[in-house]
Amino acid sequence: MDWGMKNRLAQLIQPDGHCFFMPIDHGYFQGPTRNLEKPGETVAPLLPYCDALFVTRGVLRASIDPANAKPIILRVSGGTSMVGKDLAHEAITTSIQEVLRLNAAAVGVSIFLGSDYEHDSLLNLARMVNECEEYGIPVMAVTAVGKELEKREARYLALCCRIAAELGARVVKTYWCEEFDKVVNGCPVPVVMAGGPKCETELEVFRFVYDGMQRGAIGINLGRNVWQNPHPVAMARALRAIVHENATADAAFDLFHTLTRGE
User: What gap in Å lies between CA 165 and CA 184, rounded to an integer?
Assistant: First the structure.
């Protein structure tokens, strides 16, 4: 592995081998998502607790202070919206020159296995890997399911993750599921957990994150379950305790309540 690739991965994955990525890229298909209407203001108090931001180039330029930022994972696939026909019909939206100009530590590309656009999205990933490997930039594959959330089960996600790794992704972002170890064990590159739709309770979030970490995930890529919570900073600190301090779900829940009582 080249020095540049090692260096960029080291910016994202911390010395303990774990990571906490904060996605704020939801607007690329959802528009002004609740609590993300002003993404710079939303993310500013959360920066001390995450290891990297997952963001589009437009929001990065407009909302993130380059003098006070975390390593950037640049969202480079898109071209669909919530009101369009099919969220899976994505293309590459951002050039390698732009990735370099914005000094991204990595890029993120969605893949949609089982959709009408499976082939297109997998080639999007492969093309981006081809370009980014030349410059030592890691590609994170995002195993998206569009509106079909029932697909989030181990057999399907294991298929997605393994194919993403086979195509050259250096990291794979996927959903937690029952028997999550089957997903991780079949993927030869690091796996990080997505949050998906907002959970009903904080403890529900802490439990799936803890379980996934115990089953081999290296970290999380959670957004809505943090910045849509009434206490986003407490949520971020509690999640960081699980990811980087080996806290249990119950310990994280206790920390969350201790922090919220002090607000």
Answer: 11
User: From CA 5, how far away is CA 36, in angstroms rounded?
Assistant: 31
- Could you report how far apart the first and last alpha carbons of the chain are, in Å? 46
Q: Which two tokens stand for residue 78?
A: 């898109």
pLDDT of 260: 94
Q: How far is CA 46 from CA 40, 78, 115, 247, in A?
A: 10, 25, 35, 19
Per-residue pLDDT reduced to its tens digit, 208-220: 999 999 999 999 9
The structure tokens 């939206």 sit at 93
The CATH number assigned to the domain with range 3-225 reads 3.20.20.70
Share of the chain above pLDDT 70, in %: 96
Catalytic residue IDs: 173
Q: Residue 208: how many CA atoms within 13 Å on its side-chain side? A: 23
From residue 202, give the alpha-carbon distance in Å to each of 110, 115, 213: 27, 32, 17
Total-model pTM:
0.95
Are β-strands 139-143 and 106-111 bridged in parallel, bridged antiparallel, or unpaired? parallel
Q: How far apart are CA 154 and CA 176, in angstroms?
A: 9
Looking at every residue in the chain, the average pLDDT score rounds to 95
Q: Are 80 and 29 in contact (CB under 8 A)?
A: yes
Domain map (residue ranges) of the chain: 3-225
- Cβ burial of 211 (10 Å; 0-12, 13-18, 19+) is middle
